[in-house]
Design goal:
This protein is mainly beta and 68 residues long. The chain has one helix and five strands; from the N terminus they run ββββαβ. Strand 2 and strand 3 form a beta hairpin.
């Protein structure tokens, strides 16, 4: 699964604060995620996080190069 920094992950289950969206702060074998509701940060193994992802929200940043 292609997860990048600053992606927002919508999870299947809500955090105890009620929010389902998490901001990706670190990727690799583990993910560091920040809850978009209360700001709580957690480190979780990649395989565990990927099982619980419902949707990945990503801003489309297009890199345009000028040909001049």
């Amino acid at each position: 699964m292609d997860i990048r920094l600053n992606d927002i992950l919508v999870m299947k289950k809500a955090h105890p604060c009620g929010e389902k969206r998490w901001l990706v702060l670190r990727t690799g074998a583990d993910f560091r995620l920040r809850c978009m509701g209360c700001g709580h940060e957690v480190m979780t193994p990649r395989f565990k996080a990927e099982k619980n992802i419902r949707q990945v929200l990503r801003e489309n940043i297009s890199t345009e190069t000028s040909g001049s």
